[in-house]
Design a protein that fits this description.
The structure is a single chain. With 375 residues, the protein is an all-alpha fold. Helix content is 80%, strand content 0%. The protein contains 17 helices and no strands. Helix 13 packs across helix 17 and helix 14 runs parallel beside helix 16. The longest helix is centred in the N-terminal third of the chain and has 51 residues. The termini are far apart.
């Protein structure tokens, strides 16, 4: 009996010792793991500081150490990938992100970073693919609606850089449906993108959305002037321009539009209360401007024989109209003929010789508007 009791006591002692050893080892392992994770977090925070200070190499080194200490924290992998991309190590960044994506295929931030790496190397197919995965993925940082809006803007800008106008327009229209009426900053950005797409009507609608919330928003007034000008609404453009410049806002674009508007008002033969003789003078001035533009463009080097021939035909037509203007009484038909010829000369020469002077652009803008066309 004593032997049994002794054996039981020994077993209990061994069990207690084993338990203490197990729990002690576990606590030690937990403490060591916690220390490693804490150190990894410190490396991550140090890397963030280095990144903010534009020390990309230092940030890469710190984020590597953070990831080595804790591979389960996606923040570390994402931060390392972003820094590798900034260090022009796009392929390494891509490999890291693709490995991470295998575990988190629906993570929007990961898909977004893959898209950015692809965009940087101008890979339209891959960038578009992962931008769209990001749009419909799960956002773990920030407000999802806001992050989705930011990503759509980023995608549209990339598409415009890649000259994918139709894709950009489609995504812009989708974005338009999702924006809140009070998000004036986003409406302003969207309007600017529509201007880049040569969509002045949609741009104007976007700027109007801003002005409905804040009618004193100077940037929106400024861009409204540009959109109205592109639409041939010169009086409206002038009003918006005056309102924006009165608030002290102007830039190179507004200076050019201001000059062109002044020229348009001076050369428009349809202005009210003009005597017939003055209308005829203005028509002649339009024809002279168009002829000078064609003759100047005709002197450009490397134009083909076909282009020279077409240019000569335009010049002959303009000369003929100027002669007709002197040989018979002035009529409304002269205005229509002048606008048609000026439009033909302006659009043709722009294709080969660029936009031309402010006077050239004003002539084309006036003719385009008079014929009911859009620029």
């Amino acid at each position: 009996m004593r032997i049994i009791q002794r054996d039981l006591s020994l077993l209990v002692a061994i069990a207690l010792a084993a338990g203490l050893f197990f729990f002690g080892t576990r606590r030690f392992a937990e403490a060591e793991s916690h220390a490693i994770r804490s150190q990894a977090e410190r490396w991550y925070q140090q890397g963030a500081k280095e990144s903010s200070a534009s020390n990309v190499a230092g940030a890469v080194a710190d984020f590597r150490k953070a990831l080595e200490g804790n591979r389960s924290d996606t923040r570390y992998a994402l931060a390392l990938a972003e820094s590798l991309e900034r260090e022009n190590k796009g392929e390494e960044a891509r490999q890291l992100l693709m490995q991470l994506r295998e575990s988190y295929p629906e993570d929007a931030e990961i898909n977004l970073e893959v898209a950015r790496v692809a965009a940087k190397r101008q890979d339209l197919t891959e960038a578009s693919h992962f931008y769209r995965h990001a749009l419909f993925g799960t956002w773990n940082k920030g407000e999802p609606r806001h992050r989705r809006t930011e990503t759509l803007f980023e995608l549209i800008r990339f598409e415009l850089i890649q000259k994918q106008r139709e894709a950009a327009l489609s995504d812009a229209l989708q974005l338009e449906q999702e924006l809140e009426a009070t998000d004036t900053h986003s409406w302003e950005q969207l309007g600017e993108l529509y201007l880049r797409m040569n969509e002045p009507r949609r741009a104007l609608q976007s700027f109007d959305a801003v002005l409905r919330v804040n009618h004193n928003e100077s940037e929106a007034l400024l861009h409204s002037a540009q959109a109205n000008f592109m639409l041939g609404r010169f009086n409206a453009a002038n009003s918006s321009l005056n309102a924006s410049t009165a608030r002290g806002l102007k830039n190179a674009d507004t200076d050019s539009v201001t000059k062109q508007l002044a020229l348009i008002f001076e050369m428009d033969p349809r202005a009210r209360n003009l005597p017939s003789q003055q209308r005829a003078e203005r028509v002649n001035n339009i024809l002279a401007q168009a002829l000078a533009r064609a003759q100047g463009c005709d002197q450009m080097p490397n134009l083909s024989a076909t282009t020279h021939s077409q240019m000569a035909a335009l010049e002959q037509r303009l000369n003929s109209l100027q002669g007709d203007l002197k040989s018979h009484p002035f009529s409304q038909d002269d205005i229509a003929d002048a606008f048609n010829a000026a439009y033909a000369a302006g659009t043709f020469t722009s294709s080969f010789c660029g936009r031309g002077s402010d006077a050239d652009q004003a002539m084309l803008a006036l003719a385009t508007s008079a014929l009911g066309k859009e620029r």
